[in-house]
Write a structure and sequence with these properties.
The chain has ten helices and 26 strands. By secondary structure, the chain is α/β, with parallel strands linked by helices. The N terminus is likely disordered. Bound molecules: iron/sulfur cluster (SF4). Iron/sulfur cluster binds next to loops. Iron/sulfur cluster (SF4) binds next to loops.
Length: about 450
């Protein structure tokens, strides 16, 4: 026995939350006779449960206070403990909230397949790159976001988080299928990849697999969540390249383009310099929004060039046996379900590449050699590779089991033949369909990403 701060006896038969890797914090809020436990899962998520028992929380351990348990024998105590753990587990699967986006989040684990959806899992587009999407949800709200992400999204209603071990197991299977040579695991997605926890573990495990075949691990980031500590850990884990999105240098413009009051360009530029000085290759990825950030776009390229002059990169990409480019400029396009800035003009790629060529020549006149108009796919050694077979044909009518609510209203997620399918045209409540077998007409099969309509 030990005592709490009020001198009450506390039974040592406690629940030790430190034993659960995914539980990263626990808080206890006491009000009247109820105790509310707020449980943080993998840093970015939380769920809460209400307990009728008198409990104390100390150093991550939940103690059942003696007074309430005087008449309770040991067996009963054990069953209360497993009842609480059960409740937590149910809440993780049914009431998990993304702390960043405030959306309901589904914790993805077996047997839900990881191939088939663009919001989570793994995507094989028939090249040496495997896209790894451990989560959905973003910490900023860019007004041009192609997937309408962020806390203020008008269309996204659910998020997904994939269990680390499961993600790695399924990744291994794809690498085995494609052949472990020059594979690149690229962490991207409908959201900010750096919000994945534990990110260094994910990178390390992917790297352990890929480096056997001279492959690499790379990721995208908007930089907001990056810290010196996280960069150090990612460097240690073997991250090869960081594609850092920077769209403006000016404070006001950069904040406007992030759609977030908290966006701090000084922090991002500082982080860029820190990455540049590490063993991780820094690729600065500015997006041109014609008629919106034209001047700022050029300033971002200037920033990347200055960084390179201060500290020239010497990292060799094992896939190409060459150094990587330092800038990955992109042109903003408009998407049917994405956000748009009204003022933005839509450019043809030719015009964009001509502009990059012009900048390249301007740098050349100053004696600076910088590659801007090279398609990144070539520069990074992307090449065609064996593609996972598609189990469905276009327009085929199949039966799928509904397993999850959809990413947006009017959708659910179904499973068939080891694939997940984004099922659209759903006019019934998800709860009514959950677990049921439904008829679906397959409307998209490209790259093993499946969309089907309920029939
Ligand atoms: S950082 Fe990317 S995912 Fe996030 S809001 Fe901006 S464009 Fe969308």
């Amino acid at each position: 026995m030990s005592s709490d701060t009020n001198g009450n006896n506390i039974n040592n038969n406690s629940i030790d939350f430190n034993e659960f890797k995914m539980i990263t914090n626990v808080e206890l809020i006491k009000n009247e006779n109820k105790n509310q436990l707020i449980i943080e899962i993998n840093k970015n998520y939380e769920t809460s449960i209400t307990l009728d028992y008198d409990v104390q929380l100390k150093d991550g351990k939940l103690f059942l206070v003696d007074d309430s348990l005087k008449k309770i024998n040991r067996n009963r105590l054990e069953s209360i403990k497993s009842g609480i753990l059960n409740l937590i587990s149910i809440n993780i699967s049914q009431n998990l909230i993304n702390k960043t986006t405030k959306r309901k989040t589904y914790y993805i684990h077996p047997p839900i397949p990881l191939i088939g959806h663009t919001a989570f899992g793994l995507i094989d587009r028939g090249t040496n790159i495997i896209q790894v999407r451990g989560l959905s949800g973003c910490n900023i709200n860019c007004p041009f976001c192609s997937v309408d992400e962020g806390r203020y999204s008008k269309t996204r209603k659910n998020d997904y988080y994939v269990d680390l071990d499961y993600l790695i197991d399924e990744y291994k299977k794809i690498v085995e299928f494609k052949g472990n040579k020059h594979i690149e695991a690229h962490l991207d997605g409908q959201g900010e990849p750096s919000l994945y926890y534990p990110l260094p573990d994910l990178v390390q495990k992917l790297n352990e697999i890929n480096k056997k075949g001279k492959g690499i691990v790379s990721m995208q980031s908007n930089g907001m969540n990056l810290t010196y500590k996280l960069i150090d850990e990612l460097e240690e884990a073997g991250l090869h390249r960081m594609n850092l999105s920077i769209n403006a240098i000016d404070e006001k413009m950069s904040r406007m383009l992030s759609g977030s009051r908290d966006y701090d360009i000084e922090h991002i530029l500082d982080i860029a310099e820190y990455v540049k000085n590490s063993k991780i290759h820094l690729l600065i990825a500015p997006l041109l929004l014609p008629n919106v950030n034209d001047e700022e776009f050029k300033k971002v390229i200037d920033f990347a060039v200055q960084l390179e002059q201060k500290n020239p990169q010497n990292i060799i990409n094992p896939i190409t046996n060459k150094k990587n480019p330092i800038v990955g400029a992109q042109l903003c396009l408009t998407y049917q379900f994405g956000r748009k800035i009204k003022k933005m003009k839509v450019w043809k790629f030719k015009k964009f590449y001509d502009l990059l060529k012009y900048y390249e020549n301007e740098y050349k006149k100053k004696g600076i050699d910088v590659q801007l108009d090279t398609p990144l796919s070539k520069a990074f050694g992307n090449h065609r590779r064996k593609k996972l077979p598609s189990p469905f044909k276009l327009n085929e009518i199949i039966r799928a089991k509904v397993v999850l609510d959809g990413r947006v209203n009017g959708e659910v997620i179904g499973v068939a033949k080891d694939r997940v399918i984004q099922i659209i045209n759903v006019h019934q409540n998800y709860e009514k369909l959950m677990g049921k077998s439904v008829k679906v007409k397959i409307l998209r099969t490209k790259d093993n990403v499946f969309v089907g309509a309920l029939v």
